[in-house]
Amino acid sequence: MDTTRPTAGLAPLLALLTVATGVVEAASLLGFGPVFTGMQTGNVLFLAFGTLGEGGLSVVAPTTSLGAFVFGAVLAARVEWRLEAHRLRWMIIAMLTEAVLVCVAAAVAWDLEPVRSAPSGRHLAAIAVLSAAMGLRNVTAMRVAVPGMPTTLVTRAMTGFLSGSLIGRDPSFGTARATARRALSVASMFAGGLAGAAFVRAGFPLHVPLLVAAALALTAGLAGLRVPRVYTR
Predict the structure, then answer these.
(1) How far apart are CA 51 and CA 57, in angstroms?
(2) CB count, 10 Å around CB of 189?
(3) Looking at the predicted structure, is the pLDDT value of residue 2 above 70?
(4) Burial tier of 201 (Cβ tally within 10 Å: 0-12, 13-18, 19+)
(5) Residue 233 clears pLDDT 50, i.e. is over it
(6) Domain 7-224 falls in which CATH fold?
(7) In terms of CB atoms within 10 Å, which of 31, 34, 49, 80 comes out highest?
(8) 171 preceded by a cis bond (ω within 30 of 0)
(9) Residue ranges covered by each domain of the chain
């Protein structure tokens, strides 16, 4: 099987998806929970804190997100493997599917007011759809495996960037191109979070940043049609 992996062409697409993550997480954390939909480490901690009743945190929101994330990741792993086996453009299909799911979440959240605790049924439904989409995304990003661009986390990218930069001077962290990708990943997450928070602060309904995130995923998917190869592990 051809394992050609045009990472140079993929980096801009993954940067768009990382911006979308920042926008989605801003809407989730500031409007639906607090809860994350892609960064499940935060939900594990929210669940732990909420279990002991600390911080007034709901256990329902992180539990919903974790469960939906697991469902999305498992389903994506099964489907993407089969698409790859048939030499279909599974990554493009995954990105377009994510865009559809985020649009569904935006429809569910249409005109919903932000909450700081005790999310309603519609809030939980939006959380579930978004988390399933992010589960799909994480599987897709891991299958593509572009170094330094996981699209939903920046801790490792930031560590790699600092270690491989002129400050860290550690040659084991790769080339200048890898360092640039890591910097792009961190900057993209910041830009997405900033944009999403700006929408919430300006009083836009929660469906607005979600539609923006869906548009970013759709753009990445359509742009990916121009990359000539199917991406395989």
Answers:
(1) 8
(2) 24
(3) no
(4) exposed
(5) no
(6) Growth Hormone; Chain: A; (1.20.1250)
(7) 31
(8) no
(9) 7-224
Q: pLDDT (tens digit, 9 = 90+) per residue, 164-207?
A: 666 765 666 666 777 788 889 999 999 999 999 999 999 999 99
What is the C-alpha separation between 155 and 167, in angstroms, rounded? 17
At position 123, the amino acid (one-letter code) is H
- Say how far apart CA 2 and CA 30 lie, in whole Å: 44
Let me know: does 175 contact 206? Beta carbons within 8 Å.
no
Do 24 and 126 contact (CB within 8 A), yes or no?
no
**Residue 85 or residue 114, greater confidence:** 114
Helices (H), the chain: 7-27, 40-51, 60-85, 90-108, 121-144, 155-164, 176-201, 207-224
Q: What are phi and psi of 120, to 5 degrees?
A: -75, 180
For 70-76, the CB contacts below 8 A with 24+ separation are 70/135, 71/132, 71/135, 72/131, 72/132, 72/133, 72/134, 72/135, 72/136, 72/139, 73/135, 73/136, 73/138, 73/139, 74/135, 75/132, 75/135, 75/136, 76/135, 76/136, 76/139, 76/140
